[in-house]
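FIELD: query
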Amino acid sequence: MRFPCFLGNLMVLRVLANFTVCLMRNEHLHAPRGAAPTRTERAHRFFGLCQHSEWFDIVVRLINNTNAGSTGAGSGRGDRNLSWRISGRTVSDHYIEFRNVSKSFDDHIVLDEVSFFVDTGQTCVIMGRSGVGKSVTLKHILGFLAPDSGRVLVDGQDITDWTEGQLMEVRRHVTMVFQSGALFDSLTVAENIAFPLETREDMTEEQKDTRVSELAEMLEVTNALDKLPSELSTGTKRAVAIARALAQDPEAILYDEPTTMVDPLMAAHTGNLILRLKEKFHKTSVVVTHDTHLAKKLADRVVFLHEGRVAYFGSWAGFETAPEPFIQNFRRQDELIPALDVTA
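FIELD: result
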């Protein structure tokens, strides 16, 4: 069942009203001249929308998929998923499912009748050569791309024909860690991590700072909290991006090539960080990678794409014994790079 359009509009109006009240109540946004700006003020300046707070909130939701948190005293987070599951029924037992999804760009077929699923709390690793549609698959999960045919389901809901306003609800619960990190250049590491928390009315500034410190320690970026992204290595930028994604407290996280463009030691370190997060939080995850060492660490299920189709879908053990020559060749080539244990 799809969301009625008027419900999407009501949700947007509710967000705008709550954020306006939040701004009116927070006196620190009107600090005297010379006072140190808060993270929120810095974020407003970054977007150049200081006089248009409602647009700031929309940009926050579109770019950072933020969770506005509680909307009433004593409500906590109990109504967080109200609009997300308003249909009252599910059409899939899996958290993420592709049913015969096809996608072409001009005459080039990228995805051809692709089907797979990811259960709640599991990690699915999507592998394959460059250009086989791995990142395109992630974009379908978030609704950035729509399939030419087939169905995409997220948390039991068929989102294939949802409007952009409805897809914003998906992005509140499913977030993505991009290859580049997609950090805000003019914000420090601490401010980047805290960004999804800025519209949370159910958290005090002290609680937000504590959460940032916890995530920074978990992702081993405590020493970089006062630095700007331009001062960070590629691997550290990705660690900060993962911390920011966790600050949103999503139900699922998508990782796009988390170990690419870094040296083998940093790749192994990043893989170990993601593994620790998997074991600690049990978030539903989809990891796109060509790194077999990372896949072996993380995968509950493996999807191997070949010429736009699913050539293998199953356990890692089954992938290691798959008889297809192109899968065997893929494994042999990647295994030429030795696995590194950065904890040794």
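FIELD: remark
Residues 96-334 form a domain with the Rossmann fold fold (CATH 3.40.50.300).
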